[in-house]
Amino acid sequence: MRRAGVPVAFSQGFTPHPKISYASAAPTGVASEAEYLEVGLREPVDPAALRAALDAALSPGLDVLDVVVASGGGLADRIEASHWRIELPEVDPAVLAAAVATFTAADEVMVERMTKQGRRTFDARGAVITIDVSGPPVTPSVAPAVPCAILELVVRQVTPSVRPDDVLSGLRVVAGLEPPVAPKVIRLAQGTLTAQGAIVDPLDADRDGATIGGR
Amino acid sequence: MSVPSTTPRPVAANSVWPQLESLLPQVTKPIQYVGGELGAVVKDWDAATVRWALMYPDAYEVGLPNQGVQILYEVLNELPDVLAERTYAVWPDLEKLMRAHGVPQFTVDAHRPVRDFDLFGVSFATELGYTNLLTAIDLAGVPLLAADRTDADPVIVAGGHAAFNPEPIADFVDAAVLGDGEEAVLEITAIVREWKAEGCPGGRDELLLRLARTESVYVPRFYDVDYLPDGRIQRVVPNRADVPFRVHKRTTMDLDAWPYPKKPLVPLAETVHERYAVEIFRGCTRGCRFCQAGMITRPVRERSITTVGQMVQQGLEFSGFHEVGLLSLSSADHSEIGDMCSGLAEQYQGTNVSLSLPSTRVDAFNIDLAQELSRNGRRTGLTFAPEGGSERIRKVINKMVSKDDLIRTVVTAYTNGWRQVKLYFMCGLPTETDEDVLEIAAMAHEVIKAGRAATGSKDIRCTVSIGGFVPKPHTPFQWASMERPEVIDHRLKLLKQAINADRSLGRAIGYRYHDGEPSLIEGLLSRGDRRVGAVIRRVWENGGRFDGWSEHFSYQRWVDAATEVLPAFGVDLDWYTTREREELEVLPWDHLDSGLDKDWLWQDWQDSLSEYEQDDCRWTPCFDCGVCPAMDTEIQIGPTGRKLLPLTPVNGLKLPAGAQQ
């Protein structure tokens, strides 16, 4: 923010803090295409200029894609669910599909994870809205040398949060699935959830508002 | 919405990233291994003629802020045909995985294997990094012993303060550089460039010989050490023609000509210092007898107030840091420190930028300085270092600070809004008695009493922090005996009781100390000779890693290794540590020239024992320590009478050139 010259607002008090809040950050070691944050400013700035300045100030690979003026309401309230893609190298898609079927059939799947408060046990099934298996794109002429199963996951934002690794733990609990290689996880989207289970860009509401107000 | 093109980081051809990436989810703080910091440089491998891997042999969080490495990294990368990347010590969890999966020691910039580089430069601020050096060499796939290396291996060069006695690691490094690195790395680079352009004639041996002939690069293999029957060194002599009898330290004069770092590294991971640090001067002639840094970095060379101002402006703009550290061995001694602090405080008023002086002498701190440092509302920590508890011991160590000075200074800090002050002392100093250490308690009590009286408040505290004394090469205490750890620990216990003897005052005093055992091992390593290399190797083979970290350090492991290895040489741990040396003993580093005249050092050691104080040559006549004539250098100090250049305030968003909005 300082490198980009952003007029960030600070909290009052003896040790003022910049008004920046992150909504639902991805866990360590997980890639993400959709992270959101909210910044309080001292004065209005052009959102497009802010995007360009912040993007230029950040390290390669950390890209600022869009900036909108908040039209009211907290960002956190609009993050209801996340879409994750989990690549499982050396896992047969059929094996994964069977494990997913067992997982889906269960009412609850209790898993354990170390948290800052110590070891916690919680249900990893309830928060899962959709869980689908897909294989890598296979062209008829070239079969993939190493099988790789892909899991598409939409998970509701709950407390304690259910993360992709919790769902993988759940698959181990119900079906003994043990990926031989560390899985690669990427968050593709987060936002509000429609009745059909689709995720809507949380900034859409502001974008519509800005369009109406601006034109 | 216009989606900007995202540019993924290119993966270098010799990158180990594909193998490393899958290991990272299994280790703690993986972000320390990914690189990508602001200020990091990734160059085309094939376009570079000379390639350096630079290492700070500790964890990333400690190593990244290191000034020395950052300066050399930038100086080298500014050359078009030179490439420099950084590597740090990996934690044991990753080390284990790297061994299991065959991933070699890598640089964080482009994740290239260290073995692919021409040169592997390692900066030692402390001897406790030696075991981490062995881990890095071994993980790199390079033979541990310099003698076993081939033309396919990088030349391993040690630098930093510990390189003033590299004998304990002489078997493991190919070369060592004494003194300032800026010009030394350029000279070494030029020699390697030329040798490669000629088609590497004579291989590794010829390259090392060319380095040795500069008389400022020490190549241990070209020197033989002979021992007397009683274990002492008889002599150290070159075993090749053309190799100098003594190797001299490098001194960079005119710091204004070397304004680095210009583009400080800004880490994504958390590190121990997050600030823009600018060295305001190098060298110190206060003459504290325990202080190796002050002895080996002479003479004092100030950076001018105008250069400091420009560096701060550019450094903050580039990095976005909001703390400025004005570094040196005794920052308040800069001839224009007052104008510098008030000028910077003025320029950054209302911007949340704070100033800190990490090393402040009690007698050079004053009200004006206190006010400038606290002007932006945020008070960074204040630490004063009387070092010795009694007036007598302070004369022995030549720390000419009186108790009255200390009380007055600390009270100044309290009345200017500081609620907490840290006082640093040493235990185990030459001639020290229990009484000398117990006076620390009396001093801390008086500080609190005076502070309460001056502020009318009980809400003030001080922390007494005790470090163990370690005699260092090239200091007047290089001949001194160390105290046994049991004696140190007993004194520390007595001190604790004395501090808490008055419960009201004791509650306002924090007490931090290190026990005596690690200091004894530091003493072994700092004054060791080539035979100590076998101890380091044994400790490393038995799992020794990260010896600077109390949770990883094992005293027993060092004692056991010393007991196993040293008797074959007719010496032992005590021989290196608690034994006092005689005037005529050949010391392991006598052939390494710091500029200090050995006769002067001996005289200063005798003066210490008779409690005679030595003045500072910046303000009193030269006392012939020998450095300036030997090194052809001179004191460079102001005042210049110049002022900070006015800042041109830049407001608003900083848009990249040609940005599409």
TrEMBL record, chain B:
<dbReference type="InterPro" id="IPR007197">
    <property type="entry name" value="rSAM"/>
</dbReference>
<feature type="domain" description="Radical SAM core">
    <location>
        <begin position="270"/>
        <end position="512"/>
    </location>
</feature>
<dbReference type="InterPro" id="IPR058240">
    <property type="entry name" value="rSAM_sf"/>
</dbReference>
<dbReference type="InterPro" id="IPR006638">
    <property type="entry name" value="Elp3/MiaA/NifB-like_rSAM"/>
</dbReference>
<dbReference type="Pfam" id="PF04055">
    <property type="entry name" value="Radical_SAM"/>
</dbReference>
<dbReference type="Pfam" id="PF19864">
    <property type="entry name" value="Radical_SAM_N2"/>
</dbReference>
<protein>
    <submittedName>
        <fullName>B12-binding domain-containing radical SAM protein</fullName>
    </submittedName>
</protein>
<dbReference type="GO" id="GO:0051536">
    <property type="term" value="F:iron-sulfur cluster binding"/>
</dbReference>
<dbReference type="GO" id="GO:0003824">
    <property type="term" value="F:catalytic activity"/>
</dbReference>
<dbReference type="InterPro" id="IPR023404">
    <property type="entry name" value="rSAM_horseshoe"/>
</dbReference>
<dbReference type="InterPro" id="IPR023862">
    <property type="entry name" value="CHP03960_rSAM"/>
</dbReference>
<dbReference type="InterPro" id="IPR045784">
    <property type="entry name" value="Radical_SAM_N2"/>
</dbReference>
